[in-house]
Amino acid sequence: MNIQTNRLIITKFNLNMAESVHLGSLDDDNRRFVPDEVFETVEDAAETLEFLIGYYSTGEGPQVYPVMLKDQTYIGYVQAIPLGNDWEIGYHISGAYTGQGYATEAVSAFLPEIMKKIGISSIKGVCLAENIASVKVMEHCGFEKIYEGKGSYQGQERNICKFIFRLESA
Fold first, then answer.
1. Share of the chain above pLDDT 90, in %
2. How buried is 146 (Cβ within 10 angstroms: 0-12 exposed, 13-18 middle, 19+ buried)?
3. 43 falls within a domain
4. Which range of residues forms the domain containing residue 20?
5. Is 70 helix (H, G, I), strand (E, B) or coil?
6. What is the number of structural domains in the chain?
7. 160 lies in a domain?
8. Measured between alpha carbons, how far is 39 from 31 in angstroms, rounded to an integer?
9. What SS3 class is residue 82?
10. Where does the pLDDT of residue 58 fall: very low under 50, low under 70, confident under 90, or very high at 90 and above?
């Protein structure tokens, strides 16, 4: 994976990124919306990176890639996660870099590449309804909202939005 946009690079993780991943995971939005993706120590981040890197060659399991600025500054990640027979998109941009369109830019560039790699024509997205930024990212990236209401999120009953993105036929 080596995707470049005007402002971003999406490539493979390496273990040298553990400190950046640890620090990027500690912001308030990450704790609020995806608490299972907070790494309290550099060692926790390194252990998770080692696990994720192992899936790059298989195309199975979570497919998680760093999002970096052109100067190699780590600002977040994009991911495709298998859920039964389906796949789900995920992404996070660290607090210092939000509100600048990076998530939309990263997800838009990532979708066609990862969907081709794993051989799928549609991918789902789920977020808390109160997470307006994520709702907007999915809308801007061409996802269709298919549900809004009560649902399970991080093991709790919450108000959620479900989306689907379909590749257009050639």
1. 74
2. exposed
3. yes
4. 3-120
5. coil
6. 1
7. no
8. 10
9. strand
10. confident
Q: What is the mean pLDDT of residues 34-59?
A: 88
- Phi, psi angles (nearest 5°) of residue 93: -115, 130
For residue 56, give both structure tokens. Answer: 């790059």
Residue 158: Cβ within 10 Å count: 13
The H-or-E segment that residue 106 falls in is helix 102-118
| Sole residue written with tokens 């109160």 | 130
Mean pLDDT of the chain: 91
Residue 64 tokens, joined: 């998680």
Report residue 28 as tokens. Answer: 């308030």
Q: Within a domain: residue 19?
A: yes
Q: Looking at residue 83, which CATH number applies to its domain?
A: 3.40.630.30
In a domain? residue 15: yes
**The Cα angle at residue 65 between residues 63 and 66, in degrees rounded to 5:** 160
For the stretch 74-88, pLDDT in tens is 999 999 999 888 999
Q: Is residue 145 a contact partner of residue 105, using CB atoms and an 8 Å limit?
A: no
Q: Which two structure tokens, joined as six digits, stand for 94?
A: 């660290």
Q: Would you say 153 and 32 are in contact if contact means Cβ atoms under 8 Å apart?
A: no
pLDDT band at 160 (very low <50, low <70, confident <90, very high): very high
